[in-house]
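A reminder from the course coordinator: this example appears on the midterm review sheet, so study it carefully.

Given structure:
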């Protein structure tokens, strides 16, 4: 089932000299999927999320959320949202805030306390913080309580805008675990992030957008397919091998690998790197090195990281980019 369906979405701001924040954007998010939105600042990520939530309205195009137009009452209970910069009722404490959202979500009174305690445990918010007012919370604590309100109703579709902002490495890992758990329970997640390693850890598919257009959209495994570079460790990681710094040592390796269909052979502190032109030649390469007397401790076919893909797409772009439209004013969630 398609949970988000966007076709040729355009969003313009201004009338005298309109700026297109979204320029014909099309994508889909499916049931049980973690979908990542990537792009430089000002690319249109937050604008698209706000269109999905009916906070702002597309200028043209077709947008469906759970089969309905954004903002349809039938979807309200089944959508969760964590904005990039949460603006909550900061006079409430954590417990009261979540009880309020549980009531808004239609959770029966007899079940609210149990559900509030469940989500507090999920987001790992300290017990001592739950009775403090939100205005005293740190950035990381606000992210945790914000995520708790986003998932309290067990929504079918969750929008997360930079959910790892302000969190330490442990907190970022916990957020990723929560996202995986939600998907296992049947939800779909659309999230944006500048922490590419986190996206790589959890996303099933990724859309790279630029100036409001989809530049590339593909499964994560397709984007980060194997590169043609091979890494071979000829010395243990914790043992420096002085002889490997000898230029003659590298020349001997080049001779040993001359017939193995490789190029750009380099050596650095026991780590041999080379470009292999045919993956089927890897066994021959390893055999040739072993027969020449080299001890091989590790062989790794290097993969393109999401960061590699991102830099290939945007490394050539100028620094001065079209700014994303100003944040739409919305009441606290």
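Designed residues:
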């Amino acid at each position: 089932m398609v949970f988000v369906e966007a076709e040729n979405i355009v969003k313009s701001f201004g009338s005298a000299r309109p700026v297109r924040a979204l320029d014909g954007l099309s994508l889909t998010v499916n049931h049980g999927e973690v979908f990542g939105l990537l792009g430089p600042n000002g690319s249109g990520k937050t604008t698209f999320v706000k269109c999905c939530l009916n906070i702002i309205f597309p200028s043209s195009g077709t947008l469906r959320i759970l089969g309905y137009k954004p903002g349809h009452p039938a979807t309200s209970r089944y959508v969760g949202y964590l904005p990039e910069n949460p603006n909550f009722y900061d006079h409430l404490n954590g417990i009261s805030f979540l009880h309020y959202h549980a009531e808004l979500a239609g959770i029966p009174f007899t079940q609210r306390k149990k559900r509030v305690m469940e989500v507090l445990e999920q987001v790992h918010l300290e017990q001592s913080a739950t009775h403090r007012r939100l205005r005293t919370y740190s950035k990381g604590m606000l992210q945790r309580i914000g995520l708790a309100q986003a998932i309290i109703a067990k929504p079918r579709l969750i929008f997360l805008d930079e959910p790892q902002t302000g969190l330490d490495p442990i907190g970022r890992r916990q957020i990723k675990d929560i996202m995986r758990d939600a998907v296992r329970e049947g939800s779909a997640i659309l999230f944006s992030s500048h922490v590419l390693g986190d996206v790589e850890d959890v996303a099933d598919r990724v859309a790279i957008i630029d100036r409001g257009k989809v530049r590339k959209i593909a499964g994560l495994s397709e984007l980060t397919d194997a590169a043609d570079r091979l890494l071979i460790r000829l010395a243990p990681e914790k043992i420096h091998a002085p002889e490997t710094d000898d230029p003659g040592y590298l020349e001997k390796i080049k001779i040993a690998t001359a017939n193995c269909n490789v190029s750009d052979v380099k050596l650095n502190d026991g780590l041999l790197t080379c470009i292999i032109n045919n993956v089927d030649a890897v066994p021959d390469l390893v055999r040739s090195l072993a027969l020449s007397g080299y001890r091989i401790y590790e062989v790794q076919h290097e993969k393109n990281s999401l960061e590699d893909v991102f830099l290939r797409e945007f490394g050539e772009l100028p620094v001065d980019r079209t700014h994303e439209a100003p944040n739409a004013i919305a009441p606290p969630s």
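The chain has two domains: 2-223, 226-300. Residues 317-333 have pLDDT under 50 and may be disordered.
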